[in-house]
Specification:
Elements: H1 3-36, H2 42-61, H3 65-73, H4 76-171, H5 179-276, H6 284-293, E1 297-299, E2 312-314, H7 315-328
Antiparallel strand pairs: 1-2
Coiled coil: 118-145
Keywords: Coiled coil, Membrane, Transmembrane, Transmembrane helix
Transmembrane segments: 15-34
Length: 345
């Protein structure tokens, strides 16, 4: 073979090689593209993975392990993405749950503090009631004393007037025998004046004590009114916090249900992923158990859509609910929000 023919052969060989390699690269790229192609949404990915699992079970029941393997293997990429999504959702739900739990604990402490304040306030009000009762009794006693003193004072004044009239009458007849009687009456008058002045001073002191007692009553009543208002405000706050606590307990219970469900979902996709790493043949029972778990009933979470009044749903429906929530970028938690347990993801 001359050099010219050799050159032509080499050129044809190189061209053929390039064509073959190009075809191989194209096929590899196509296979990779097909393998990497997954459904666009989480709902589509979930439906696709469940559909492939269902087809695999049908092939197993038909005794075709090879077709079962192929069908099951087609779920690989969807399962991988769903495992990641479930893990992220579970991590976020756990954080939300922990945040809510910490805030509920803080709220419980606050409610306890208010209860202690109420107890202390009730004790102070009871003490004020005792003070008011004593002050009221003292006021009554003082008023009775004043009434008695005024009565005695009036009697003393009347006696003094009588003696004074008698003294005036005797003074006109001082030269008549009986001057001793005049002196006796004079002494009695002096005694009456002393008694009158003493009663008058006692009355003034008692009236002053009555005024002070009245001022004390006003102060105590004012303080009691303020404390009763404070007690009422504390009662309202306590009632509001108690209702909030009840609501948060319900929310916390819902969050626990979410965490339990997301954990179950993560376990499901994890098991499916583990089975994808091995051959179907010899693990048919594991695959069937995984498939059967989709039909089991679970408690319907409060924020799930579906039939009104329904209390249960299937695990499959719950997985699709989760996928729909992730697609819509909506919180997979109760929709209500408050300052203690934020619902947003």
């Amino acid at each position: 073979m001359n050099a010219y023919n050799t050159t032509i052969c080499v050129g044809k060989y190189r061209l053929a090689s390039r064509v073959v390699m190009g075809a191989i690269y194209f096929l590899v790229a196509l296979l990779i593209g097909m393998e990497g192609a997954t459904a666009d949404t989480y709902v589509e990915q979930t439906n696709s993975a469940i559909e492939q699992l269902t087809r695999s079970i049908e092939f197993i029941n038909a005794g075709d392990a090879d077709q079962a393997q192929q069908a099951f293997g087609d779920a690989s990429n969807s399962v991988r993405e769903l495992r990641k999504a479930s893990a992220r959702a579970l991590d976020l739900a756990n954080k939300q749950h922990d945040t809510c739990l910490n805030r509920v604990v803080a709220l419980s402490i606050r409610v306890g503090d208010i209860f202690q304040q109420e107890v202390a306030l009730r004790k102070k009000i009871d003490e004020l009631d005792a003070t008011l009762a004593k002050a009221t009794e003292d006021q009554k006693i003082t008023r009775d004393e004043i009434d008695s003193l005024r009565s005695h004072l009036n009697n003393a004044a009347a006696s003094l007037r009588v003696r004074d009239e008698k003294l005036k009458e005797l003074s006109q007849w001082f030269w008549v025998p009986g001057y001793g009687q005049y002196l006796a009456i004079r002494t009695l008058i002096d005694d009456d004046i002393g008694q009158y002045n003493s009663l008058s001073n006692t009355l003034k002191d008692t009236e002053l004590r009555l005024r002070h007692n009245k001022e004390t009553l006003i102060q105590v009543e004012t303080l009691k009114t303020a404390m009763l208002n404070e007690k009422e405000n504390l009662a309202k706050t306590s009632s509001g916090l108690s209702k909030m606590r009840e609501e948060l307990d319900r929310r916390l219970s819902d969050m626990k249900a979410v965490v339990v469900f997301l954990t179950s979902g993560g376990v499901f996709w994890q098991k499916m992923g583990n089975l994808l790493d091995i051959t179907v043949k010899g693990h048919e029972t594991d695959l069937k158990l995984l498939y059967e778990s989709l039909g089991r009933n679970i408690a319907r979470l409060p924020f799930f859509k579906g039939e009104v009044g329904a209390t249960t749903t299937t695990f499959k429906e719950a997985l699709l609910e989760l996928a729909a929530a992730l697609d819509a970028d909506k919180p997979f938690l109760p929709a209500e929000t408050d300052s203690y347990c934020p619902a947003g993801w």
